[in-house]
Amino acid sequence: MTETGPSRIQSEKRAAILGAALEVFAAEGFRGATLDRIAGEAGLSKPNLLYYFPSKEEVHEALLSGLLDLWLAPLRRIDPDGEPMAELLGYVRRKLALSRSHPRESRLFANEILQGAPRIGPTLSGALRDLVEEKAQAIAAWAETGAIAPVDPRHLIISVWALTQHYADFDVQVRAVLGRDDPLDGAEAHLEMLFERLLAPRA
Amino acid sequence: MTETGPSRIQSEKRAAILGAALEVFAAEGFRGATLDRIAGEAGLSKPNLLYYFPSKEEVHEALLSGLLDLWLAPLRRIDPDGEPMAELLGYVRRKLALSRSHPRESRLFANEILQGAPRIGPTLSGALRDLVEEKAQAIAAWAETGAIAPVDPRHLIISVWALTQHYADFDVQVRAVLGRDDPLDGAEAHLEMLFERLLAPRA
Amino acid sequence: MTETGPSRIQSEKRAAILGAALEVFAAEGFRGATLDRIAGEAGLSKPNLLYYFPSKEEVHEALLSGLLDLWLAPLRRIDPDGEPMAELLGYVRRKLALSRSHPRESRLFANEILQGAPRIGPTLSGALRDLVEEKAQAIAAWAETGAIAPVDPRHLIISVWALTQHYADFDVQVRAVLGRDDPLDGAEAHLEMLFERLLAPRA
Amino acid sequence: MTETGPSRIQSEKRAAILGAALEVFAAEGFRGATLDRIAGEAGLSKPNLLYYFPSKEEVHEALLSGLLDLWLAPLRRIDPDGEPMAELLGYVRRKLALSRSHPRESRLFANEILQGAPRIGPTLSGALRDLVEEKAQAIAAWAETGAIAPVDPRHLIISVWALTQHYADFDVQVRAVLGRDDPLDGAEAHLEMLFERLLAPRA
DNA sequence: AATGAATGAGCCTTCATTCAT
DNA sequence: TATGAATGAAGGCTCATTCAT
Fold it and tell me: Smallest CA–CA separation between A70 and chain B, in Å?
């Protein structure tokens, strides 16, 4: 009757650990991160951390497992039956917003890919590829009707990824160029213009 | 006459070490790389490696120190007195070519930035920023004359970086989407079109 | 009237723990055994186990303390006034039966002795030695009357131990030689013959 | 031309480590033994030990790998064409001598078997079983000619193992019974008599 | 110029034990 | 009684670095 799921303290601690781990893994990479630092930042001892997760590897996996879903959500929301230009610019906006609200997730992902995707490689060739293929067909259809300019849909999607994530992943460099306190509003305007011009059908 | 600089064997070994180190650092990150692996791939013993470089840190630094120069060369070649459109598209082409011919350097750089640029941070705010500022002014001047569309020059440069480097740094992901054997020629065409449309002055 | 000794549940749990501990200590040795495994096999939690026994050490000791009594029972039953040959062969039979019915106890004991008897050393030099001495005199007396062949009684007893326990302690090796499914009946016949011939008085 | 095998210092250190490891593994079992103690007893640091052997497991294996050969040497020397009684009694004598000169090896072996032979199990069912089978046939042949009493040859061999090894493995207990300073000469006489009577053909 | 040998510091993980409930 | 949570101490192993040759 009283099926008890993970107790409150369980979920709170697990959440605290994952938060700290996200911070550390994103900043230092998998090998660079130490359980000591993660535990410290989560406010518990190292063996206590291992009471909640069986190993460093599994903490990392717990972070990655949800990540791709989060990451692809903006793409998933593209509606083949919507208004093409609005759908695509909306996608760009959502993806940029996500990158800016979740920079640590972005860097965690970047780290994983940079190292050759040892852990989520299969998912890339599976779920990711499938989703891209699906959306690419919608975009291609739009291009054929002349609603948008003819572009390679897959490279278009890759461009969105590259441009939006760069602001999160290469933040230090961006800041060095733009100045410490730039609100990055220029980025949004710039990307919007960029994709508008790229996609605008010829007059 | 008998002033002896570094003997040939010296420089050869140093070069071999740096080559191996580039491979390993790019693939595994700084902490993930081990001197053992670098030494092994360079074909010498670990203590011998440390005879040529005093520490792991310094091997890494030796790689990074030359890197920014290489990395900024395409940008540097933009000629304020040249034909605007040709200059900028030439820049894009050169930068993409560089990323594709030097993917390991690209990843090494990406790793460093992702970790917060602990080693080349100062250079970013110095030399890098200065160069960008200089070229940005030239681009801004072009925009004012109407030779190109009005764009934020700094975000333009950032876009070039993002789009070109992405193909090197996120290779695994790109391959997952495009297929293992895609020659990536589509990337070049796509980027050229992208920047052409972005920069083309209004009719 | 209401003096309450250990409640039934108390003794039942203690018994369950000791049963599981016997299994685990016999199979893995003292250091190899973990409270986790013992608790798991006893069907309770680790802290709960430590509610019944204050420490791993004491679980082990509880097992050992009763063990020597059990182990020496067959020897104790030798009757100085009985028929010599029957008494001794009966002893051999009882000891072999015990080893076969209690292989885990045998291995627990073997482990303890192998490690130098850190816990029951004193008992060996005390109770064990005394009992052996007592029975040795009886055997010596039999030898003097010519009822059995003249043998060193202490080495005789040691031989019984060695031969009977070996079948329990070295079971894997015995099985490797005799085959997985040998019922070990041959052992009984063999040992009986061995001691019969050893002890039969000269014609 | 100058094919160099392991340098002298290599073999010396390896030998020292194996010596110390034999001591510790025999006394504490695999899990009970610590690299710290082995290294300490061998006179070097723990990482230095791991410079010579890649892991604790491999130190252990290095000890075990040669052990069975040593252990079976006495059995192997039984000559089917020799004088039966002399061959068998010689075997007993050699095996007892070996157990007494190599008590640590004996205990190392006992530990391994007690734990279920996790590492040399296959060898037991292979090389060991084959050798026993071979010698058992020779013994059976002797029994058939009447040169020795009819005994189960495999149980005979097991008896030799049990009786000889017991003096090494259960040394503490034997000493508790016989006295700290007994030279154990009685053991030799006893075993000789035991097997003589067991094997002597009926008059 | 090169390498075998050595080590201190640190890392991930295990485990007996304690604490709070 | 019973257990979820926590921890200190240790254990095996890695690795950058040093030393001696």
Answer: 16
